[in-house]
Design brief:
Blueprint lengths: L12 E4 L14 E3 L13 H14 L3 E2 L26 H11 L8 E4 L16 H19 L5 E6 L12 H11 L7 E5 L13 H19 L12 E6 L6 E6 L13 E3 L6 E7 L2 E6 L7 E4 L22 E5 L4
Helix pairs in contact: 1-5, 3-4
Length: 336
């Protein structure tokens, strides 16, 4: 969103410390109104943090504190806790933990907001393997440490990143990483996954201001109902629950989602059976079921929606609520 500060500070949106990575700057002992961007990261929470704070203050009529611990261009293994020195200033986790403890908020943290994974799409991690192979393990470890250090945390909000975000990933490895992110709620009943591929205007790596504002717009209704007790609204992103063949002929596949869906014939080329495209002849919806009629009986037993090598951000599978479905990769197709 540019170098200049795009939003005026609000006295009811507060933060503590700075996002600086150097030992001196990282130990800034200061409560202050939050800024979208500032020199040295002082009181900085980013554009969508500011927008989210403003929305919550306006809707809930109460102050809010957001503390930004993000560091760009990092893998999930770099966010892990140093068991020997949890407040280690050399670590991303330690710098954030020190700020929360210094602010006296260890028991006041209610939610963790997690948008990360671009640098895990390839094979640059410490094991030499692909990021999707170890992402779940690292996330589970990280979530356990969050619960240990912030014992009253109630909700986790994790974004499924943009396809091939920042032009990273090899031979579909980014598709598999997004699928790991999609499946995280199966491990955490209090975790909600948010799709970024429906954000407009889009941003394959970084987003323009209006795009980041949409991040906040996606989070706000979810947090209102899950943290502030408001009535449930249709604000969750469609997630695939199951895929199965209609009959032993294997010429029709049902995709069962967790909410009612919409269909457009332009989507037929966005589905891949065992990596092969062009097999869907037609599609239809019945409530939360997307039904794909195949041109011929399927030889493969897995299905993918949206390959980052050939997709269009204007051609997305969406729910009746207008939100983009989470992408999925190599999901097994059950026999009926």
């Amino acid at each position: 969103f540019g170098k200049e500060n795009p939003l005026k500070a609000n006295e009811w949106v507060r933060t503590f410390g700075a996002t600086a990575g150097d030992p001196e700057g990282a130990r800034l002992n200061l409560w202050a109104p939050a800024e979208a961007r500032s020199a040295g990261g002082k009181s900085e929470i980013g554009y969508w943090g500011m927008e989210l704070g403003r929305m919550l203050v306006e809707s809930e009529q109460m102050p809010v504190c957001l503390i930004n611990g993000a560091v760009g261009g990092t893998r999930i293994d770099q966010h892990q806790r140093n068991v020997a020195d949890p407040e280690d200033v050399r670590t991303i986790y330690g710098r954030l933990l020190w700020r929360v403890r210094a602010a006296g908020l260890t028991h006041g943290i209610r939610a963790i907001l997690w948008h990360q994974g671009e640098n895990d799409q390839g094979a640059d991690g410490p094991t030499g393997g692909f990021g999707y192979e170890t992402y779940e393990k690292y996330f589970v470890s990280l979530a356990g440490d969050w619960k240990r250090d912030y014992p009253n945390v109630q909700r986790y909000y994790a974004f499924q990143i943009w396809p091939k975000s920042c032009a990273m990933g090899v031979n579909g490895s980014d598709n598999r990483l997004r699928d790991v992110q999609r499946r995280l709620p199966r491990l955490f009943s209090n975790l909600t996954v948010i799709a970024t591929l429906g954000v407009k205007p889009p941003g394959g790596c970084h987003f323009p201001a209006a795009g980041y504002a949409q991040f906040a717009g996606y989070l706000h209704p979810l947090m209102r109902q899950q943290l502030y007790g408001h009535a449930r609204t249709a604000s969750e992103f469609p997630g695939l629950q199951r895929a199965y063949f209609v009959s032993q002929r294997r010429d029709e596949v049902v995709l069962e989602f967790d909410q009612p869906m919409q269909w457009s014939d332009s989507l037929m080329n966005q589905f891949f059976l065992a990596g092969q495209s062009g097999l869907v002849q037609s599609g239809a919806v019945e409530g939360n079921r997307v039904i794909l009629k195949l041109r011929e009986p399927a030889a493969g037993t897995s299905i993918t929606y949206l390959d980052s090598a050939r997709w269009n951000p204007e051609n997305l599978l969406i729910g009746v609520n207008g939100l983009a479905a989470l992408t999925f990769c190599d999901v097994p197709i059950d026999e009926q």
